[in-house]
Amino acid sequence: MSEQQQGAFKKELRKIDIWALALGAIIGWGCFVMPGTSFLPKAGPLGSMIGLILGGIIISIISISYGYMIQKFPLSGGEFVYADAAFGKKHAFVCGWMIILAYWSLIPLNSTALAMISRYLLPGSPLQVGYLYTIAGWDVYLGEIALAYAFIIGLGIVNIKGVKSAGWFQTLVAVALAGSVLFVFVGILLTKPDFSNLHPFFMEGKTKFASILAVVAFTPYCFVGFDCIPQAAEEYAFSHKDALKLMVGAIMVGAFIYAAVVFVTAVVEPWQPMLASNPSWATGEMILKAIGYIGVLFIGIAMLCAVVSGMNAFYIASSRLIYSMAYADALPSKFAVLTPQGTPKRAILFMMILALIAPWFGRQVLAWIVDMTCVGAAMGFTYTCASATVLAKREGNKKQVLISGLGIAVASIFLIITFVPGMPGFLSIPSFIILGVWALIGIIFYLFIKHDYVHGKWKGVSVEKILLSKMEQDIDV
pLDDT, tens digit, for every residue of 351-375? Predict the structure, then answer.
C-alpha cells in the first residue's frame, strides 16, 4: 500500500463541523438525567455547576496537548499515531486497542438511549412492543431494537456517503442540541423562578470543596468525546492550528450545557424536597411544571440530538482509528482501503455490523462495556499528554512540556479512579470481567500480528519524514 493512500481522505470538514463533532460526542443523553440522579445528590446546585465548569477547564488543559500533537501529526488515528511516534508500536497497539472498544460501544449504547428517551417522554412507549426477554434486569423489545437498527444503519449510510455529508449532519444536529437547551434555559428564566430554591447551594454534610470534587470526578464520563477531533485530522479543510480553539470551544460549551441543565432542574422548586419525592425524571418534571409541554418537547429534541450526534461522531472517530491501525498493520489490511469518496467504508460497515449485534444484549450489558469508556479515554488522554511531553522536550519547548506534564498528572488520576472503590468511575465486577476478556483478546491478537506489525512497512521508516511529506501536501487556508 502506498503512502499516498494514507493521504487520500477528502479535506471537506469545516471548522464548525469539527466543533460540532466534539460537542456532539461530549453531550450525551446522560446530561439530561444525571442532574437528578448524580450531580445534585452529591454536590447541590452550585457545587454541581462549579464542578462541571471546573471539569471543562481541566479537560481543556489536556486538550492543549491534543492541539500540539494534531499540528505535529496531522493524520487520522489520533492517539494511536501519537503513541507510535513517541513510544513505539507496542504502546500504540495497547492505546488503540483500548480506545476502539470505548468508541465502538458508544454507538450501540446511544442507539439504545433512544428507547430510554421514549420511555421518559412517552410513558407506556409505543416502542415497547414485541417483548422478547429480560437480560440483567433490562426488558428487550423488538420495537426498540427496530428503532436502534434504523439509526445505526441510517447513520452508517450517511458516513459511507462521505465525510462532507456526515459533517453537515453533525453540525445541524449539534446546533439544534445547543439551541434546544438554550430555549429551555431562557424559558425557565422568563418564568422568574425563585432563586432561593437553589438553597442550600452545596450538599449538606459536605464541605464546599468535597461537593465540587464529587462532580469533578465525573469529568472523564462527561467530557469524553472531544478527542474525536484528532481522528479526522486528515479531513480538515482549514489550518490544523485552529484545532485547539475548536476543541476548547466545544468543551466549554459542553460544560455550560451541563451546568444549564443542572440549573433548570434545581431552580423550579426547592431541590432537596423535589429529590426526596423520588421523581422518575427530575429534569423533565421540573421543566414540565415551569413551562409546560413545549419545554418537555424541546428538552426531548435536545436529548434526541445528543444521542444522534454522539452516534455520528463515534462512527467517524472509530472508523478513522481502525483505518489508521490497519494502515500500520495493527489490524487486518482490508480495513486500510478508502472509497473514491474518501471514506473507510469497510471500517464503517464493520462497526455497523458489531453495533447491530449489541442491542440484543440489552442496555445494561452495554452499560457494563461503556463503563470502560473512562478507561479507554483516560488511557488516550495519558498517552497523548505523555507523547506531547516527549516531543516537546526533544524540541526544547519548555512551556509545552510543563502543560503536557500537568495533563499527564490529571489524566493519570482519571485512569486511577476507575480502579479505586468508592469513586464514581469505579468499575463494576461485570465491567472488570469484560475488561479482562478484551485485554486477553488483545494479547492473543497481538501475538498473531506481531511479526507483520513490528517488522512491517513502517520498519526503519522515519515517522517524522512521512509526516513532513503529509504536511507539505496539507491544505492550509
Answer: 899 889 888 887 777 777 767 777 8
